[in-house]
Amino acid sequence: MNKMLPLLACLTITACGSDSSDTPEPPKVVPALKADVCYLMSTNKGDMTLAIDLTNTPATGLNFKDYVDSGFYDATLFHRTINNFMIQGGGFTTGLVFKPTNDPIINEASVGISNKRGTIAMARTDNPDSATAQFFINVLDNPHLDASDSTAGYAVFGKVISGMDIADQISIVPTLVNDVPVDEITIDTVAEVSCTTS
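Request: output the structure for the sequence above.
Response:
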């Protein structure tokens, strides 16, 4: 008990001190998502229009654009769906066949854009810089996925600007083990379209 007293006193002094060197850092300015390029994602459940931010998350946004431009996402699956959480796709073809990808990219979650409902973020392994092609769409606000002092977070690089009801429908389909849909949810095509004001 006595060992705690110096620590508490120190914290009190630090918090109340008037030393000018203790001025707090200004709060980080979190940029608003940009709609630099937009895509129509057609699935067997319906269409979604996605706006991708190349300005604030250039590595992530350009990575997604490169995959779209090469036709990589055509005939892939939303292979993981979790009600009240997110839907994940872009890594497997029918029959859950893994699709080879390009090299991993850096994690841009530190930009600070939050994993709010309707945002699109990169899926990854425990390695923060392991994202390749797989992405997910948040169907609820998921702030625990944001970068913080204790976690690298998941990089948000876009948002659904129309068709969020389709993402909602996909999120509630019946699933098997590992949240794999019973019936395959296909991403048929992803094609560039003009961006409209959301």
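Helices lie at 4-16, 58-69, 164-171.
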